[in-house]
Each structure stands twice: as C-alpha cells, then as structure tokens.
Design a protein that fits this description.
Strand content: 5-15%
Radius of gyration: 20 Å
Largest sheet: 12 strands, mixed
Distance between the termini: 32 Å
C-alpha cells in the first residue's frame, strides 16, 4: 500500500486514544497437561488438521508489524514450548519487532527436556507468564491434569534471576480458592505480578461454571486486609498495556491484579491483534473482520493485511458491542469456527476519529 495511506491509517489509530496494538500469537493447540477448565484433548481440532505458521512466517509478520510501530508480541497455546522450533519463533519475532520490543510467552513452566529459560531468553524472550493454580502438587495435578508446581517455581526463579519480568496466571475456582490465595501470596516476597483470573463460561469450563465461578468482587472482599492501603502499580512498570488495576499491598515485593472477563469486561481498550496457529488474524472477537494471512505471506502483501487489521480495530468505535459488557471470548487455539472471513476495507477512506472513553477492563485482558 502507498506510504502516505500507511501513515494516515497509523495516525488515525494513534488519535483515537486507545493503546497501540500488539501481536497475540496462538502458536499451537497442543498441550501435555489437561486443565479442568481447558481440556484441549476433548476438542475436535486437537492437534490441528491444518498446517500451522512456520518460524519464517512469524518473522515476516513481525517485520511488517514493526513497520506499523508494533513493539510487542505475546505467544500462547496450547503449550507453546512444545513446538520444536520455539526458539526460532521467538528469535524471529524479536528480530522483526526490533531491539526494544517486548517478547512474551504464557507457559505452564514444566519445560520439555533440553529447553531452558536461559535458551528462551537468549532467543529474545523478555517476559514470562506462568500458569500456576495451586502450590500443592496433588491439588495442582487435580486441576491441571499433571505437571508439578515445584518445577514451575524453579522456572519462575530462573526467569527472575535472568531479569525477565514474570507474571503468574491463576484461575479462580471456588473449590480451590484457598490455593489461589496461596499462589497470590507469592507476590509478598517475589517481584511478580499475580493475576487472579475469573472462570469463563465457555468451552469445557461451562460444566464447572455454575458451581466454581467466584467473581472478582467477592475475592476483593475476602482479601480486603491485603488491599487496605495498597498502592496502585503503574502499568508500564509491569509491562502491561491494558487498563486493568494492579495493586501492591503494603510491604510486598510484587502485585496482585485481576482478569475479570465474566463479571466486568468491556472492550473499550482492547488492543490485541489475535492470530490463530494457522494464520487467521482476528482484530476483534465481536466484529467479524477476520483475515487469513497465509495468502498475504505468499504474495508479499502483508502491508495490505495490516491496513485491514488497523481499519478493523478503528471500526470497533462503531461496533454496538464495543461499549457494552459481554461474556464471551473466542478460543484461538482452534481455527475451524463458523466465523466469516473479513471483507477487504477500501483503503482511501479514513474514518472520523474520536477519543475513546476510559473503561475499567479490556476484552480478554493482557494474557
């Protein structure tokens, strides 16, 4: 696309008051654990029937994204570390987005043999989100279908020793709420951000939701002694770009935040360009403007694809659901969903942009 149109579209996005977007890359659907609220092996597309993107594909996407001033890429799965080429993927993203980019990953921390946090950091990883739902090995295995929280803790310690930022994702369940509080208390001594994640009424978690859901408001009430007098942590300190609040109890080394997609999520500041394992980009979960990236990779037209993505994110301002509450997030591990492909956007037309109002949460938060 012409450079002038590129600049005009990027400027229009910058003027709307929302955070600049980042790449949210779901690298695979495979996982060697089986969390009760996830259960990947029960899904019909488990293992992928289609060919996923390659490390070279991710490097090309990151290079184009860098031209649009994107400076962050986050990798998730499945369990992304099961990819044999994970180090090449991380290196390609880091090279494409540039030396100041944030490159992160969500993992359960039980790394496969031969893969270490040191190797991931050497490849370009700058922060690590660890899934940890109980510190007790038996109870953790009941939640996660395997794994060992003691191994996850060693991964955490290795990441902190290397200077990586670390966040912990802990899903709240009523039967295991004491376990979640024990995980949260790791932030008392460690410089980590623990995010307490509300259960969502989607996928396998639907079978648990009625009995296991516990809302943020109730958790805050039960932890009121921690939060009394707690100071708010600036998001740039945590490397978090969403408007969610992170609180540091007095005297603690780390912080506690919430991802509350069920009780109080809105999408007013959502800024993720979500890309499925086979390369379907989804700029908005509620606005079907999906676009397959593989044809653009093959034809060298990724600039046109990113123009579509930026325009689609601007179109959120006119989306009826944009300022409302919603209770659905699409699972990006699987590509076979009944969602129409996006219609190409006429590039010469730029929307009238107004500054977005402030909201308390993003759709999907910052994983």
């Amino acid at each position: 696309m012409p450079l002038a149109q590129h600049r005009a579209l990027a400027a229009a996005f910058a003027a709307n008051g929302r955070n600049h977007p980042y790449l949210a890359l779901t690298l695979n659907s495979l996982c060697n654990l089986d969390c009760v609220f996830c259960k990947p092996r029960c899904m019909p597309d488990y293992g992928h029937k289609d060919r996923p993107l390659t490390a070279d594909d991710y490097a090309a996407i990151a290079t184009e994204a860098g031209a649009w001033q994107v400076r962050k890429a986050h990798c998730s799965g499945g369990e992304p570390t099961l990819r044999a080429d994970i180090l090449d993927v991380i290196a390609g993203l880091a090279a494409g987005l540039g030396p100041d980019a944030a490159i992160g990953m969500t993992s359960h921390g039980n790394l496969r043999r031969g893969l270490t946090v040191e190797k991931l950091a050497d490849a370009g990883l700058t922060y690590l989100n660890l899934s940890l739902h109980s510190l007790d090995p038996t109870r953790s295995a009941a939640i996660m279908g395997g794994g060992d929280p003691r191994v996850t803790r060693r991964t955490l310690d290795a990441a902190l020793a290397l200077g990586l930022r670390v966040k912990i994702n802990c899903v709240l369940q009523r039967s295991y709420v004491a376990d979640a509080f024990a995980v949260a208390e790791l932030a008392r001594e460690l410089p980590v951000a623990v995010r307490l994640v509300e259960l969502q009424n989607i996928g396998p978690a639907q079978a648990l939701f009625d009995t296991e859901f516990i809302p943020e408001a109730e958790v805050r009430d039960r932890l009121h002694e921690w939060f009394a007098g707690a100071g708010e942590v600036p998001r740039d300190e945590l490397g978090v770009r969403s408007p969610g609040r992170y609180l540091r109890p007095e005297g603690w080394a780390g912080s506690i935040g919430f991802i509350s997609n069920s009780s109080c999520a809105t999408c007013s500041d959502a800024n993720r360009i979500k890309i499925t394992p086979t390369g379907v980009a989804r700029p908005c979960i509620l606005h079907n403007r999906d676009i397959p990236l593989k044809p653009h990779l093959a034809e060298g037209t990724l600039a046109d694809a990113f123009a579509h993505l930026f325009r689609s994110m601007l179109d959120r301002d006119a989306n009826d659901a944009w300022q409302g509450f919603h209770y659905v997030d699409y699972d990006l591990r699987w590509d076979r969903m009944e969602r129409p492909e996006g219609v190409p956007v006429p590039l010469p037309l730029l929307p009238t942009v107004t500054k977005a109002p402030s909201r308390a949460r993003t759709a999907g938060g910052d994983r």
